[in-house]
Recover the amino acids of this structure.
């Protein structure tokens, strides 16, 4: 368009009027900016799709040795937006304490689902706890999730996920792995997260999962998984 306008500076009034109507000067400035936003947008979509593919590991349906820490990291990446500070909500700090672990033979996508369910619950518990405290208290006792891994013995890894949220009473702890048990408002929780988690850890991977918690004391989930599955 620039070349054209240089070569033919005098255009017919009909064309002149049309160019005025569509505000050609603005379009000339705006289009490069729009294109560059689109480029950034598609780049961002590409990253999101890649992250989701990494998380679900759909291309690896079979049981195989995987790096547990990579699974935790890819889950945290997906949960990033829930961990960031928002107006009226403080950021949630993730404290990692990873040990040297061998690869663990598992269904990688399913195990990531376990991390996702437990971390989502921890975030819910922290949000509820912030709801019940004043801004001053939030500052002194900041929301945090601690993730620790440990090689219990050469054939057993343990993953500890602890939050300092609202915690649970004994009567709630007894029911958390039951299908459809939820304390969340209708429409917010289906109560399936932990029952699916239990199935994946105990039935599919022959591991164990337990929960330690008390009201106001946060909650800790301990998952233990054998490094090799017996055939
Ligand atoms: N970290 C936690 N702190 C406090 N309470 C928890 C925690 N994790 C689980 N709970 C309790 O266990 C209940 C069951 O959890 P579960 O993940 O199975 O279902 P849900 O989170 O309610 O719904 P969803 O199906 O969406 O996960 C929760 O409603 C909550 O009361
Ligand atoms: Mg849940």
């Amino acid at each position: 368009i620039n070349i054209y306008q240089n070569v033919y500076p005098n255009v017919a009034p009909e064309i002149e009027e049309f160019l005025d109507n569509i505000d050609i000067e603005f379009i000339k400035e705006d289009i490069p900016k729009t294109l560059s936003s689109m480029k950034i947008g598609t780049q961002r979509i590409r990253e999101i799709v890649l992250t989701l593919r990494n998380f679900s590991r759909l291309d690896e349906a079979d049981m195989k040795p995987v790096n547990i820490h990579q699974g935790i990291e890819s889950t945290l990446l997906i949960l990033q937006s829930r961990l960031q500070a928002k107006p009226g909500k403080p950021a949630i700090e993730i404290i990692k304490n990873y040990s040297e672990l061998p690869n663990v033979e598992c269904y990688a996508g399913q195990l990531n689902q376990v991390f996702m369910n437990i971390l989502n619950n921890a975030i819910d518990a922290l949000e509820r706890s912030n709801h019940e405290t004043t801004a001053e208290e939030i500052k002194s006792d900041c929301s945090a999730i601690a993730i620790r891994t440990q090689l219990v013995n050469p054939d057993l890894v343990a993953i500890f996920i602890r939050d300092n949220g609202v915690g649970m009473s004994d009567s709630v702890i007894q029911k958390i792995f039951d299908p459809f048990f939820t304390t969340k408002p209708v429409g917010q929780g289906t109560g399936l997260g932990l029952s699916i988690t239990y199935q994946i850890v105990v039935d599919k991977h022959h591991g164990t999962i337990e929960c330690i918690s008390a009201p106001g004391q946060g909650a800790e989930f301990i998952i233990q998984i054998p490094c090799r599955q017996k055939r």
About this structure: The chain has one domain: 57-226. The longest strand covers residues 144-153.
